[in-house]
Design a protein that fits this description.
Strand content of chain A: 5-15%
Number of helices of chain B: 10
Structural class of chain A: mainly alpha
Number of strands of chain B: 5
Order of helices and strands of chain B: HHHEEHHHEHHHEEH
Distance between the termini of chain A: 85 Å
Helix content of chain A: 55-70%
Distance between the termini of chain B: 47 Å
Strand order of the largest sheet of chain B: 3-5-4
Low-confidence stretches of chain A: 1-9, 302-308
Shape of chain A: extended
Number of strands of chain A: 7
Structural class of chain B: mainly alpha
Radius of gyration of chain B: 21 Å
Mean pLDDT of chain B: 87
Largest sheet of chain A: 3 strands, antiparallel
Strand order of the largest sheet of chain A: 5-7-6
Oligomer: heterodimer
Low-confidence stretches of chain B: none
Largest sheet of chain B: 3 strands, antiparallel
Number of helices of chain A: 17
Chain lengths: 472, 250
């Protein structure tokens, strides 16, 4: 007979984590499954792919800043929508991205958490539980609005639910060091990108713990859980900083023997590792300053009843019951409700001196609304030639005629240089592309989109653009 | 009195002035931001500020990165008066406006978990049309669940849902604007007040108005829900019980 005390059924423990991994994708499948009911324009789109691209672009921008501006994400993902369906206008493509963002925010359910029920095997029986999570959040830490992917969203994107983030960071660094030492730089760039995602995820996890403690100290056992987690996090971060320094040294060494193409990859690597380092330093600073703040919170909240949330459900506990009372019963409470949303009202203070001054002030003459001004006579004066000649205009026309399908501005400029066209022609080409980029659909000569990459040539540098000149 | 203390009092007064103008935020004004940091670094400054507010009968609701939130205490010189919201309202109109303020909060924060999130997390954009449909929907449910309730009587004897259902959904003025006599018009009026007080961001005219709550709105609703609402529920229940027992409430 087996001893029941030492039997461990690993699948019982593993199943909940696995099923939650599966459930994280449910909102994406639902979005895809119901797209036909929403807009005909969505039928040629894979909304799951767009959702993951939105999350990818957002996580990337979460690098060192607060998050991503909604417009920049829309501008980046809209070209992908048009690739799936070329008949869509730029505005339609943007609307499709908006729909996917709203889906990820769960706007249809007023941004409540997604709630997915699942069966869990507990004590030999089946218990139904609910997994609730958010994938994307819109937030405003200052007066601007940003998007950010939640910890669960990063889990979904990186396929890491059920894995330990700290372990994954260590594993990433080992792989990164190995790839750099072997000169496998393009693989290393990809690994460094994953490492950066891990550091963002770790940052979000720690911030989540601290925010939960600040909101309600009873959610976190400060002495047992939070303090030990913070201590472990500090050690983990210090170790990351040491390894990141070693990786940077290894990158510097590689520079000395690097070919031209490798230098670009090394620079990208260095930037990614630097961003991770800065994030880890900021997190470390936060963790060493956190204790006194939270002890204060603990003191302030110490008298709250554990597990009791003093906030009522405004809809079900206040608004709906109030509808069943008579107007007469509610009239005494109205002032209090309306007053809750009004700032203090400063009383008007009477100054006798000011009052007399105002009352005895001479009456102002009514002046006509329109000033009596003469329209100046305009003469045409001679000016120098404009910056662009007929030749430039003809060259630009020829260059655009040469393009077939979506073409990068950087490629057209390169071609112009190869053909030894003057700089003024290139400048006119760039200005024309920028004008069409900013123009409304009906005013644009041809559609222009952000290509999502930077370029640098002899005379120009900045965001690369994709031109789609349609030939009659 | 030392010159230093006099300066602290001056700056505390300045901070109070910023706090009383809800459209000011520390992100827009460097001075406001500097005074806020002083609040967290100097305990003397904080004490002077709080005492000054107390002396003026101003209640400090919350300190947040989005500013200091204050309200006038009842019967104090800065207390809210109904005329500050809208003058000349009849009882039933006043109650409907109060309920619509609750409805907007209920629509924006459908669950306790949502209300309890970080202040920075934004609630979704919504339209006046959506909130009007939400309110009408709930009132229709009340009507379906209480078919025996008489629909006639003096305004004060009418049930709240009956009064709201008695309003037309929309109505135009001569100038083509939404009339305040309609449900949508009253919602627009209430939301305009919230915009004026920096609690809502007006986004567009679409669907009778599209708006988004600011972090300050969440802070105010949390305060109201945490403090005022419990009192409100108690007072409503007391009034209802007193009415049922036929004794005066007080």
């Amino acid at each position: 007979m087996r001893d029941r005390a030492i039997i461990v059924d690993p699948w019982e423990k593993a199943l909940p984590a696995r099923i939650r991994t599966l459930l994280l994708t449910a909102p994406l499948h639902r979005m895809e499954g119901t797209k036909g009911h929403r807009m005909a324009e969505l039928l040629k789109q894979d909304l799951r792919m767009l959702a993951l691209r939105i999350m990818d672009a957002t996580i990337e921008r979460m690098g060192l800043g607060y998050g991503a501006a909604r417009d920049s994400i829309i501008a980046e993902v809209a070209p992908l929508v048009r690739k799936a369906d070329e008949s869509l206008s730029v505005d339609d493509a943007k609307a499709v991205v908006e729909i996917v963002i709203e889906g990820l925010l769960n706007d249809a359910e007023r941004r409540q958490a997604f709630r997915e029920p699942y069966a869990s095997v507990e004590s030999g029986g089946i218990t139904w539980r609910e997994f609730s999570f958010n994938l994307l959040e819109e937030f405003s830490p200052d007066d601007d609005v940003y998007l950010r992917v939640t910890v669960e969203g990063i889990h979904l994107y990186t396929g890491m639910l059920g894995f330990n983030i700290e372990d994954a960071q260590v594993a990433n660094e080992i792989v990164l060091q190995y790839q750099i030492s072997r000169g496998r730089l393009s693989d290393a760039v990809q690994t460094a990108r994953e490492a950066e995602f891990r550091s963002i995820q770790y940052d979000a996890q720690i911030q989540g713990l601290l925010n939960a403690a600040r909101r309600d100290i009873h959610q976190v056992d400060w002495v047992k859980d939070a303090l030990s987690a913070i201590g472990a996090a500090r050690d983990h971060i210090l170790q990351r900083l040491r390894i990141e320094k070693q990786i940077l040294d290894a990158i510097e060494e590689k520079y000395e023997s690097a070919e031209m193409e490798e230098i670009q990859q090394l620079t990208a690597l260095k930037q990614q590792v630097n961003r991770c380092m800065v994030r880890h330093m900021q997190l470390h600073r936060l963790l060493i300053s956190v204790n006194p703040d939270y002890l204060d919170e603990q003191l302030q909240q110490g008298f709250k009843v554990s597990g009791f949330n003093p906030l009522p459900n405004i809809d079900k506990e206040i608004f709906q019951p109030a509808l069943l009372f008579t107007v007469g019963q509610l009239k005494g409470s109205t002032t209090r409700i309306l007053g809750s949303f009004a700032p203090p009202q400063p009383p008007h203070l009477l100054s006798v001196e000011l009052l007399i001054e105002k009352l005895t002030a001479p009456m102002r003459e009514d002046k006509p609304h329109i000033l009596d001004t003469e329209t100046p006579e305009l003469d045409e004066i001679e000016t120098d030639k404009g910056p662009f000649g007929v030749e430039d205009e003809e060259n630009v026309r020829l260059l655009l005629q040469e393009t077939t399908g979506p073409t990068r501005l950087s490629q057209v400029l390169e071609f112009a240089q190869q053909e030894s066209m003057p700089v003024s022609t290139q400048r006119l080409l760039v200005l024309d592309a920028l004008r069409n980029f900013g123009a409304e659909d009906d005013e644009a000569g041809y559609p222009v989109q952000l290509a999502g990459e930077q370029f640098k040539s002899e005379n120009f540098e900045g965001d690369d653009l994709t031109l789609e000149v349609r030939h009659e | 009195m030392s010159e230093e203390l006099a300066n602290i009092a001056l700056e505390a007064g300045e901070l109070l002035r910023y706090a009383m103008d809800p459209r000011e935020t520390p992100f827009q004004s460097k001075r406001y931001s500097a005074l806020m940091s002083q609040l967290s670094t100097s305990s003397t400054f904080k004490l002077v500020f709080e005492n000054m507010a107390q002396g003026l009968e101003i209640q400090i609701l919350a300190y947040s990165p989005h500013g200091v939130f204050v309200a006038g205490r009842e019967r104090g010189p800065f207390a809210f008066k109904m005329e500050d919201y809208k003058s000349g309202m009849r009882v039933e109109e006043r109650v409907v406006h109060g309920l619509l303020m609750l409805a907007i909060a209920a629509y924006c924060f459908p669950t306790v978990e949502v209300l309890d999130q970080d202040d920075d997390i934004l609630r979704p954009r919504f339209t006046v049309e959506q909130v009007a449909a939400f309110v009408q929907g709930l009132c229709r449910v009340c009507k379906a669940n209480n078919p025996g309730d008489p629909e006639q009587g003096t305004p004060e004897l009418q049930l709240a849902w009956q009064t709201i259902l008695g309003l037309p959904l929309t109505m135009s003025t001569g100038q083509g604007k939404m009339a305040i006599g309609s449900l949508a018009g009253k919602l627009q009026y209430a939301l305009d007040r919230l915009v004026e007080n920096g609690l809502m961001r007006f986004l567009s005219e679409d669907n009778w108005g599209t708006l988004q709550p600011t972090p300050a709105y969440r802070i105010q609703v949390k305060q109201m829900a945490g403090h005022q609402m419990l009192k409100l529920i108690q007072s409503i229940h007391q009034e209802a019980t007193a009415a049922q027992e036929g004794r005066p409430n007080g």
